[in-house]
Here is the input.
Amino acid sequence: MNRIAVLGSATMDLIVRQARLPRPGETMSGSGFSAVPGGAGVNQAVAAARLGAVVDFLGMVGEDVHGAQLRLVLTREGIDHEGLESTSRCSSSSSSEPTGTAHISVVDSGENAIVVVSGANAALTGLSRAQHDTIERAAFLVLQCELPVSVLTEGLAAARSAGAFTVLAPAPVIALPDGFLDLVDLIVPNQHEAAALTGESDPVRAAELLSAGRTWAIVTLGAEGAVVAFDGAVLGLAPARPVQAVDRAAVGDTFVGVLVARLAAGAPRGWAGRAEPLRAGGITEAEMIDAVRWATVAASVSVSRPGGTTSMPTLAEVAAILA
Here is the structure.
């Protein structure tokens, strides 16, 4: 089975539920608290694994209780995490950094506000030989922008050299070096990230710009669905599945993880993305639209439940909805 390598952030999500966001200087009561293993990288890895994908996770945590909890959840989800480094093995001055944390306020409407403290994620400034080996045996590499850009660039270069299909969820939007996006086969921003990357507020036009040069682009629009584009041309608008939103914290990560899991399931075993010249590594329009359909359903399930990794559906749940 094709392997998916996720190079990304690992954080402990500290979630407070409340009626609304506080005003500056205001103290208010919340209605609930939970601590959930997360981070965009871990979330995407879990979402893919629950769809039956074979997943490797690469990143860095601290030598603390949060790091131990993150390793435990990866183990429980069947995700290989030999590539999850500890800051104790980091020779830099940042080796005392704790595991990253995300401080999340979720209001009753389901909207959220998030403050991320990178911690150990920022201490990963280069890939180990073992992490390189993991990328080189993967058919897909998934990245976000919550690690230092030098590490992302190194990972993309290794994946391109090995012929893997590369997927970028560009959150948060950061300054990217020249040529960075040329190494990406599929970019999956939301409409705000797409606008920041292109300067184009129209998500259709933004998708066209991001997909130029034989790249896939999927711009997610929340309840309005997603724009799917390839090589500078929009292929269509994939509709969303209407649900009552409870918590949007992990909806984007669920979409990306399930999307890639579905693509990996449909690719020939041992497939190397860049060996096929058509459709950015041999992925057809029909395969991409099918993967978007699965990802949309999975995202609708996630948004209807509280939490991050705790909200993500299994293969059986998504298949039952699509049956």
